[in-house]
């Protein structure tokens, strides 16, 4: 399950937020998430989204602890 960011003025999607791998089999939440600019989305299917990313480190961000 992921999330999206959008521009409140235009209503357009700006980024997809995808959870990264879990810590210790997912027991303690997630260590990072991937924030993918929507312009990098190549195709959206019924069960998959294809994106073009040059470097994974460019979209990797630490998760915000709640």
Summarize the structure.
The protein is built from no helices and six strands. With about 70 residues, it is mostly beta strands.
CATH architecture: Roll
Shape: globular
Low-confidence stretches at least 5 residues in length (pLDDT < 50)?
none
Strand order of the largest sheet: 1-2-3-6
Q: Which class best fits the helix and strand makeup? A: mainly beta
Strand element count: 6
Helicity range: under 10%
Gyration radius from CA atoms, angstroms: 13 Å
Largest sheet: 4 strands, antiparallel
SS field, number of helical segments:
0
Q: How many discrete structural domains? A: 1
Q: Return the CATH topology.
A: SH3 type barrels
Distance between the termini: 17 Å
| SSE string | EEEEEE
- The CATH class, by name, is Mainly Beta
Mean of pLDDT = 80
Strand content: 35-45%
């Amino acid at each position: 399950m992921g999330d999206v960011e959008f521009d409140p003025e235009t209503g357009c999607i700006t980024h997809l937020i995808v959870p990264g791998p879990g810590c210790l089999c997912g027991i303690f939440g997630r260590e990072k998430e991937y924030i993918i600019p929507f312009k990098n989305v190549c195709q959206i299917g019924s069960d998959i989204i294809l994106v073009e990313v040059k470097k994974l480190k460019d979209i990797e961000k630490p998760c915000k602890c709640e």
